[in-house]
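Quick review question:
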């Protein structure tokens, strides 16, 4: 019997069937397309093809934070359940939703002092966040308490390794997720950008590839270089934004690297898709500690600030 419940959000980009279980509350991020507001419900109300076809035909969807009423409803439901609850939240490095969630949690906790409510900044997004959520679901079934889940997630988030390829950086530039200068440089070079999520939950350009085939090969090389030796490292998540052929090619190459890997394939949802655009392909797995990738100067700065 699980000792804690979870609140998760749609930015994890996992299949709905995987997260649809008792004690798990799904928060849907909103997005706006052609003047109409929709909720990211993990492609239950519209198809992957419909959303990305619209983008390919010129639609420029935008996104916003989860609303305060939606956050309040989630935490009120958690308090009413009487079960300690942890919200595994989309990266604060890419959205203000974490700060909003903490504010609402504090308000609900003040009204329900007996409730145990926690918010964890995953420092992750999309299928990287999804891998953490996927494993959190397993750990929940194994009996972690809410406090233990918080400690687990705050450490585990640094061992989720990911790299993803996008067709271009323009959608990320429009959404303010990368500097305009980086997007312009990528376009001028006519390459496929490769990005990672840094330890602080922001995006970093990790490399470029000339063509999609070389980009997919680069994703496989990144996996081979960074994957942890055993255990949960055998789980690999492939995410794609309506690029099934590329996802299949990536899976085939990954299986040649590790034929015992458990590969989970996910569609990139409309909120993340609004920022990465059609054709994005990602590989996510358990690997090395991202904090070790920091420069010496950054490590000193984190220590001075009291960070991990």
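Suggested answer, residue by residue:
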């Amino acid at each position: 019997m699980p000792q804690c419940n979870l609140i998760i959000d749609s930015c994890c980009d996992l299949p709905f069937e995987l997260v649809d279980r008792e004690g798990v509350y799904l928060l849907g991020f909103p997005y706006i397309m052609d003047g109409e507001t929709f909720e990211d419900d993990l492609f239950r109300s519209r198809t992957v093809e419909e959303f990305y076809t619209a983008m390919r035909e010129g639609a420029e969807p935008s996104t916003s934070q989860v609303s305060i009423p939606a956050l309040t409803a989630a935490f009120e439901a958690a308090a009413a359940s009487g079960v300690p609850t942890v919200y595994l939240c989309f990266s604060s490095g890419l959205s203000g939703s974490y700060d909003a969630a903490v504010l609402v949690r504090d308000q609900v906790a003040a009204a329900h002092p007996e409730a145990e409510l926690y918010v964890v900044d995953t420092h992750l997004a999309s299928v990287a966040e999804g891998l953490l959520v996927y494993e959190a679901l397993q750990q929940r079934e194994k009996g972690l308490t809410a406090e233990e889940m918080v400690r687990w997630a705050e450490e585990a988030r640094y061992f989720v390794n990911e790299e993803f390829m996008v067709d271009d950086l323009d959608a990320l530039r429009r959404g303010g997720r990368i500097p305009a200068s980086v997007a312009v440089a990528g376009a001028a070079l006519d390459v496929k950008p490769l990005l990672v999520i840094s330890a602080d939950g922001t995006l970093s350009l990790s490399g470029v590839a000339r063509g999609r085939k070389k980009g997919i090969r680069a994703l496989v090389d990144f996996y081979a270089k960074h994957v942890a030796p055993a255990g949960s490292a055998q789980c690999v998540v492939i995410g794609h934004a309506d690029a099934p052929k590329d996802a299949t090619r990536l899976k085939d190459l990954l299986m040649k690297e590790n034929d015992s890997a458990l590969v989970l394939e996910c569609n990139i949802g409309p909120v993340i898709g609004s920022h990465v655009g059609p054709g994005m392909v990602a590989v996510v797995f358990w690997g090395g500690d991202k904090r070790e990738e920091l420069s010496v100067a950054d490590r000193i700065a984190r220590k001075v600030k009291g960070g991990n």
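Why it works: Residues 5 and 23 are 5 Å apart (CA to CA). Residues 5-157 form a domain with the Rossmann fold fold (CATH 3.40.50.10170).
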